[in-house]
Specification:
single chain; 435 residues; alpha+beta; BirA Bifunctional Protein, domain 2; Rossmann fold; 2 domains; 5-stranded mixed β-sheet; 16 strands; 20% strand; RNA-binding
Length: 435
RNA sequence: GCGGCAUUAGCUCAGUCGGUAGAGCACUGGAUUGUGAUUCCAGGUGUCACCGGUUCGAUCCCGGUAUGUCGCCCCA
């Protein structure tokens, strides 16, 4: 033993492991999400987790919290490149779309699922490594795709059995409209400097729009009296916003217009939306997005409109668990118990033979008493134990013991008949359940 | 990044007014040397998160650190 104190090896703060038991909920969620995306015609795309740092600075905005203080950036010591672990997915997706000319011929509906990284103080529902489902529709200009994306959300919450997720909607207008509003806003807040808190003063000339999102009670009166963006919107912007709302009303989807809804990333324009819940404490947003018509051009592509949103997987899985969702069953169909050398060899043949027939099998490994093997067969959740000992080997048979059905008795079955015997019993059970 | 609270067995938690600790569940073995889930019996040496301070003595008091959690900030 050395005298050095060995630091306990542990994962990085804010980057939790997802263990069996919870991971099954993730798989349930991912399966539901993939089938939902397919039903809307979205296709998968996979980008690297690491991108050149300038990509995020240009896409997200230099003065955002993400770029200012939350990015995991580092120098690639082998060639001096400045790289960053992606803090969000849209920038990388757009980069890939530009690089491979994906929307040269036609618009694309794309999605990805994966981890993102932001150096924030961890909390429930907020982690330094977290996962998002990103959904992007590139090359679409009309309000129809915005509305469809919002309707998609409503369907997913329904598919997942989630209640109490509410829609908030806003429009940010076009850059020139925002610029005029911004100038008025700065002028207005400058007249009320004495009321502004430190954070607001800092933002006054960098990102005044976000002062509107402040929760500081002392500032609420002047925020309420501030120039409203909607008064600066032109005909086209208003029409776009109205058209989105019209589809939502036609679909009977309730929403709240929240003029203070300001997305944290700079690339948005026109429609922005958030799905929020009050069941997750301070982290209420489970899904958010909007239109980003300028981003593709801003990143060097041929200018094209686009719209997208992202969901927080940790937050949604947490909601699913709280709602009493059932994870995918972790059990197996058959657990093979065996005693003796000849039986062990036969057990492999039996197990593989069952798998050839589509039966899930756990083969007991690691020896142990017969009793302990039966206990493991029970706790595995298997419908059947297949028991192989000297008697069975000699007869070329196995003993098939139903573990869940009180009425059924253990019986001897020829190896060739085993798969059929199991399948027939399982089918009977399914029919009984359906009846 | 700031503030509050927490951290004791694999899990959920008691407890020690400072004298190095317990329960339930789980797990393992046995009663039953080929039959689980029920029953009974047996099985705990756990750096009481880590580092330091006070003390004859610290799991307990104090300080720091780490991690979690709640809120702020921000966001998915």
């Amino acid at each position: 033993m050395s005298n050095t104190i060995q630091a306990k090896l542990q994962g990085i703060r804010g980057m939790p492991d997802v263990l069996p038991g919870e991971a099954e909920f993730w798989e349930l969620f991912e399966e539901a999400v993939r089938s939902w995306l397919k039903s809307y015609g979205y296709r998968p795309i996979r980008m690297p987790i690491v991108e050149p740092t300038p990509l995020f600075k240009r896409a997200i905005g230099e003065v955002t919290d993400i770029v200012e203080k939350e990015m995991y950036s580092f120098v690639d010591s082998l060639n001096g490149e400045l790289l960053t672990l992606r803090p969000e997915g849209t920038a990388g997706c757009v980069r890939a779309v530009i690089q491979h000319n994906l929307i040269a011929q036609q618009p694309q509906r794309l999605y990805y699922i994966g981890q993102m990284f932001r150096h924030e103080r961890p909390q429930k529902g907020r982690y330094r490594q977290f996962h998002q489902v990103g959904v992007e529709a590139l090359g679409f200009s009309g309000p129809d795709i915005d509305a469809e994306m919002i309707l998609m959300g409503a369907r997913l919450w329904d598919d997942l059995g989630l209640e109490g997720i509410k829609l908030q909607l806003n429009t940010l207008g076009q850059p020139e409209e925002r610029a005029r509003h911004r100038a008025e806003l700065i002028a207005y807040f400058e007249q009320h400097q004495d009321v502004l808190d430190e954070d607001a003063k800092r933002r006054l000339h960098t990102n005044p729009l976000r002062i509107l999102d402040s929760k500081n009670p002392a500032m609420q009166p002047i925020i309420l009296g501030a120039p409203k963006l909607i008064d600066f919107l032109g005909e086209a912007s208003l029409e776009h916003f109205n058209a989105v709302q019209q589809v939502l009303r036609d679909a009977g989807l309730p929403f709240e217009i929240n003029p203070r809804l300001v997305r944290g990333l700079d690339y948005y324009n026109l429609t922005v939306f958030e799905w929020v819940t009050d069941r997750l404490g301070a982290q209420g947003t489970v899904c958010a997005g909007g239109r980003y018509d300028g981003l593709i051009g801003q990143l060097g592509g041929k200018p094209a409109p686009a719209c997208g949103f992202a969901m927080g997987v940790e937050r949604l899985v947490s909601l699913i668990r709280d709602a009493g969702g059932e994870p995918l069953p972790a059990g197996t169909d058959v657990y093979v118990v065996h005693q003796g050398e000849a039986a062990a060899r036969m057990a492999f043949r039996v197990a593989e033979g069952l798998r050839d027939n589509g039966v899930d099998v756990v083969l007991h490994c690691g020896g142990g008493s017969f009793k302990s093997q039966m206990k493991k067969a029970d706790s595995s959740g298997a419908m059947f134990a297949v028991i192989i000992g000297d008697d069975e080997v000699a007869a070329g048979e196995v003993s098939l013991k139903p573990m869940r059905d009180e009425g059924d008795e253990q019986k001897r079955v020829k190896i060739d008949d085993l798969a059929d015997a199991i399948m027939n019993t399982m089918l009977d059970c399914d029919e009984e359940e359906e009846a």
